[in-house]
C-alpha cells in the first residue's frame, strides 16, 4: 500500500503512476460524457440523433445496392414475403456496424472541435512548452 497520494486519506493498493493515470482517465471521461453518453434531454443527444438519422439516410442507398445484388430466397407457401437469407442478415449487420462507426467518428470529431477552442497552439489544453514532456496533474 502507498500513502503518498494527494487526494487519498487512506492507503491505496496500487502504484502512484497507475493511480494518477486512473484519475486522469476518469477526468477525461467526465469531460467527454456529454458526447459519448448524453442524457436524452440534452443538446448532445439531439445532435447525436440528427447525425445518426442523416448518416443512416445517406447510407440507405449503399445498403439497397448491396442487397439488390444478392439472390432472394424463395417465398414459402402461405407467406406474403420471403425470409431473409443468412447472407442478407450478415450484410445488414455489417452495414449497421459501419453506420455506427461513421456516427461515432462524427461525434468524436465534434468533441475534438469543442475542446480545440481551449487550445492556443498544440495538442492539448496546456502550455505548448509541455507538449513533449511528461507531467503530473
UniProtKB/TrEMBL annotation:
Gene3D superfamilies: Ribonuclease H-like superfamily/Ribonuclease H (3.30.420.10). InterPro entries: RNaseH_sf. It comes from the Eukaryota. One of its GO terms (molecular function) is nucleic acid binding. This is Uncharacterized protein. The lineage of its organism: Eukaryota, Fungi, Dikarya, Ascomycota, Pezizomycotina.
Amino acid at each position: 500500500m502507498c500513502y503518498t497520494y494527494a487526494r487519498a486519506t487512506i492507503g491505496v493498493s496500487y502504484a502512484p503512476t497507475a493511480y494518477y493515470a486512473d484519475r486522469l482517465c476518469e477526468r477525461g471521461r467526465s469531460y467527454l460524457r456529454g458526447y459519448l453518453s448524453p442524457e436524452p434531454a440534452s443538446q448532445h443527444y439531439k445532435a447525436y440523433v440528427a447525425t445518426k438519422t442523416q448518416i443512416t439516410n445517406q447510407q440507405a442507398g449503399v445498403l439497397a445496392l448491396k442487397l439488390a445484388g444478392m439472390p432472394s430466397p424463395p417465398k414459402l407457401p402461405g407467406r406474403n414475403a420471403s425470409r431473409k437469407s443468412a447472407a442478407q442478415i450478415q450484410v445488414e449487420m455489417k452495414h449497421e456496424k459501419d453506420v455506427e462507426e461513421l456516427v461515432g467518428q462524427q461525434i468524436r470529431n465534434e468533441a475534438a472541435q469543442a475542446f480545440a477552442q481551449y487550445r492556443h497552439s498544440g495538442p492539448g489544453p496546456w502550455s505548448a512548452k509541455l507538449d513533449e514532456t511528461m507531467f503530473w496533474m
